[in-house]
Each structure stands twice: as structure tokens, then as C-alpha cells.
Design a protein that fits this description.
Elements (H helix, E strand, L loop, with lengths): L1 E6 L2 H14 L7 E6 L8 H10 L6 E4 L2 E5 L5 H10 L6 H4 L11 E9 L2 H12 L5 E2 L3 E6 L4 E7 L11 E8 L2 H14 L4 E8 L2 E9 L5 E9 L51 E9 L2 H12 L5 E2 L3 E6 L4 E7 L11 E8 L2 H13 L5 E8 L2 E9 L5 E9 L29
Parallel strand pairs: 1-2, 5-8, 9-12, 13-16, 17-20
Antiparallel strand pairs: 1-3, 3-4, 5-17, 6-7, 7-8, 9-13, 10-11, 11-12, 14-15, 15-16, 18-19, 19-20
Length: about 425
């Protein structure tokens, strides 16, 4: 067994050497040495990998037979004894842990990536919808980071606007607790000249809701909604606005009277949500599926949560961390579901152990996933896993290791790959 303790500075080197003096005589085939990187001409690749993950918290760094096993402190006597007697076959999980380079207020937040034809046009729309400027704006990319609701939304320009995935996101939404939030969104949209449609105390998706519907410039449908009554017998039929073809919002081409609300603000009455959830808002995603039971198996595994509502053609998850209302709607003729294209959805985390936890659940459930480690994409460096749901809707669980990078999202990026499928998910997992 060979143990190397990498340090920076003479003081820490003296500590490492004292450990070496104490343990060198215990076994003839056991070696322990301190190495001062300040005096080294070459840094091993395994040390560089840990430095990229943990940065200033890397040292002291202990390697056993070349594998990283401890970072940020010196090993204890019992830890050295255990390594000497038991050996080591792979790096310790502790060293693979990383902390986010981007700060946000929750432990997790939903991420959504939307393919657009024109980033500028879409930025105008989303700046209006969320009442916030993007934190990053490139010629082919833009990113919004919202605190309320917690969301990382990125826009990726693809002028061909081809089919980059097989799944279908029916619509996305912002669930609120106070109808004033809907009124505020209406006023912003009206002032900016965007079209929207309104529903007041309407039964659909097995609940009674008040909401506005507003398509983005590429036809991706968003709603801002309030649940008035949490239970209703009405599902989502072909007459529901979810399936209706709405007029797209082309920035700068709005007619004078197209944005008038269906109710007069003078008759407006404030109401509060019948459903409680953390925070003031949360993201909602609606996904069309061919088989609700099959999709239930996938999403129970992905979020480690059980649905709060299950019907023959519908299911709903209410997740506190990350804050999300996710509904799944069964539609047999899934070929024609709208003009928009959601590239993928994701969960952004602050600690890479959260990625490891999801990986373990996916492995136990027999689900496929792909992994990327410290890859530059979308103008940041990230570590992540990709896992498509049974209908091809792609989800990622990711951590930002470096907040800035020069690389965007080119044709070689996994965002555009045809990924393996999880179409053989067994419905029994959802039981």
C-alpha cells in the first residue's frame, strides 16, 4: 500500500512527514509520504481532477495507490490503519463531491431548456412573463435565473428548429397562491403587447382553476394559474384549451384589441389558493404520455416521490424540493401535440451527492441514463446525468462546476443526441 499526502506549504508538509514517521515501520510493503505541490514540477491527473471539483478546499489530499480517498483534512490514525489492512479498489465517493459555483436560494430548482428560432424575440417574451432580465445573453443562448419561483430557464437558438427529441412537453406553468399574481402577469403582458387567453374558475385536469394561457413566440404554451378547488370530476378532454391551437406571440405584431382580458378588472375579486405549498410560486410542467402507468414508474423514481393524484388518464406530483407541480396527461394519438418544442427539463442541485442519489435510484429501478463529468456546454462547465422518460422527454440532474465557459451548445452536444430510451419501464414500479 502506497499513501501519498499532497499539501501546499512547508507547514503542512511537516505534518504529513510526521504521519509518515509514525507508520512507515508497521508493514514492510506499506509506504506513506508527504508531497509539497509548491515544489513539484508535475501534478498528477487524479490530483488535478479533485482540484477542479473542490478548488481551494482540496488540500490536504490523500491518495491511496493512486486513488483519491480524502480531501480537505489529514487522515486519522484509524483511517490509515484501515487503508493499510483493507486496501482500496476505487476512489472514495467523498472526493467526487462538489459544491455549486452558482448560488440560489433553495437546495434544488427546476431547469427548463427551450429551443427557439430567435433568442432575441424569446428574451423579450420571457423577460415580460417573469418580470426579470436574463443573467446571461449570447447571440445563440440566454439564461434566466428566478428566485420566485425557483427556476433556471435557458433558451437555445436552433434556426433549423428540427426535431431534437422525441418527447412532448404539453405546456409549462407558474402556480401561484394569490390571484393578484395572475393580475400582475396580465398587466405586464398587456402592456408589452402579448396575446393571452383567460379562464375563470374552470374545471380541468380534475381541479377547478383560474388562469391565463400565453404562448411564447415559438408556440410553447405557458399558464399562470391558481387552484380554486383541489378536486373536480372533469379531466382534460379534446375541448380543453390544452389541446386548442392558440395564436402565437410574434413580438411587435400585436393588433390594438387582441389583448383585452375576458373579464373587467373593475369586477376583480382577490382569492387565495386552496392548495398549500412552500414559497409563493412554483413551476408546473405538463407532459403528454402514451401510458400514464408507465410514466408514473419513471417519475416516482426520478423524484423519489409518490403522486398525489392518479386517474385513468392523468397523474399529478407535488414536489417541495425542488418546488414543482408536475402533471402527466395520457393522449393516445401523441403524434400531433402542438407547435412548440421543449428540448429538456432538469433539476439543478447544489451538491453532487444529490446526483449520486438519483443515479442510485435509476440503477435500482433498471432505468437507462448517460453521464457527463465537467463538460463545457451552454457557456458553463457542468457535471450531470441525462435520463429520458418513457416518451423521450429528456431530464437532467446537474451541478454547475464553473459558472462561465466559452463553449455554447453545438451540434456535437448531448443536447442534440438521439439518446437511449426508457420505453420499457414497467408499470409495476408505480404500484
Amino acid at each position: 500500500m502506497k499513501i501519498d499526502i499532497y499539501v501546499q506549504g512547508d507547514r503542512d508538509l511537516a505534518v504529513a512527514n510526521s504521519l509518515s514517521d509514525s507508520y512507515l515501520l508497521k508493514q514492510s510493503d506499506f509506504q506513506l509520504a508527504g508531497i509539497n505541490l509548491d515544489e513539484s514540477e508535475e501534478i498528477p491527473a487524479s490530483v488535478l481532477e479533485v482540484m477542479m471539483l473542490k478548488k481551494e478546499k482540496t488540500f490536504p489530499l490523500t491518495l491511496a495507490n493512486g486513488y483519491p480517498v480524502l480531501s480537505g483534512r489529514f487522515p486519522q490514525a484509524e483511517e490509515i490503519d484501515r487503508l493499510a489492512t483493507e486496501g482500496i479498489e476505487k476512489p472514495a465517493v467523498l472526493v467526487d463531491r462538489a459544491l455549486s459555483a452558482v448560488h440560489f436560494s433553495t437546495e434544488k430548482r427546476i431547469h427548463c431548456n427551450i429551443i427557439v428560432r430567435d433568442v432575441y424575440r424569446s428574451v423579450v417574451f420571457y423577460r415580460t412573463l417573469f418580470n426579470q432580465n436574463p443573467v446571461k445573453h449570447k447571440k445563440d443562448y440566454a439564461k434566466f435565473e428566478l428566485e420566485e419561483p425557483p427556476l433556471n430557464l435557458s433558451l437555445l437558438q436552433n434556426e433549423e428548429f428540427g426535431n431534437s427529441g422525441q418527447g412532448s412537453i404539453n405546456h409549462l406553468g407558474i402556480q401561484v397562491k394569490d390571484s393578484n399574481a395572475i393580475l400582475e402577469a396580465k398587466e405586464r403582458l398587456t402592456k408589452a403587447g402579448f396575446k393571452f387567453e383567460e379562464e375563470v374558475e374552470t374545471a380541468g385536469c380534475y381541479a377547478v382553476q383560474t388562469k391565463i394561457w400565453v404562448p411564447d413566440p415559438d408556440g410553447n404554451l405557458w399558464e399562470v394559474f391558481l387552484v380554486i378547488e383541489p378536486e373536480a370530476t372533469q379531466g382534460c378532454t379534446s375541448e380543453c384549451i390544452c389541446y386548442q391551437e392558440m395564436s402565437q406571440n410574434s413580438v411587435g405584431s400585436v393588433t390594438e384589441n387582441c389583448c383585452q382580458p375576458t373579464t373587467n378588472n373593475g369586477d376583480y375579486q382577490r382569492v387565495f389558493s386552496a392548495v398549500d405549498f412552500p414559497g409563493e410560486k412554483r413551476i408546473h410542467a405538463n407532459i403528454i404520455t402514451r401510458d400514464v402507468k408507465r410514466s408514473l414508474a419513471y417519475y416516482q423514481t426520478l423524484f423519489d416521490a409518490k403522486p398525489v393524484k392518479i386517474k385513468s388518464d392523468y397523474a399529478k406530483f407535488e414536489i417541495d424540493e425542488p418546488r414543482l407541480n408536475l402533471s402527466i396527461l395520457q393522449k393516445d394519438d401523441i403524434d400531433d401535440f402542438g407547435e412548440g418544442l421543449i428540448n429538456h427539463l432538469g433539476i439543478q442541485v447544489k451538491d453532487s451527492e444529490a446526483i449520486a442519489e438519483v443515479k442510485e435510484r435509476l440503477i435500482q429501478a433498471g432505468l437507462n441514463f448517460e453521464e457527463e463529468k465537467q463538460e463545457a456546454c451552454c457557456y458553463a462547465v457542468q457535471t450531470k446525468i441525462w435520463a429520458p422518460d418513457p416518451d423521450g422527454n429528456r431530464w437532467e440532474v446537474f451541478i454547475v462546476v464553473e459558472a462561465e465557459a466559452d463553449e455554447g451548445c453545438g451540434p456535437d452536444c448531448i443536447c442534440y443526441y438521439e439518446m437511449m430510451q426508457n420505453a420499457d419501464v414497467k408499470a409495476s414500479v408505480a404500484a
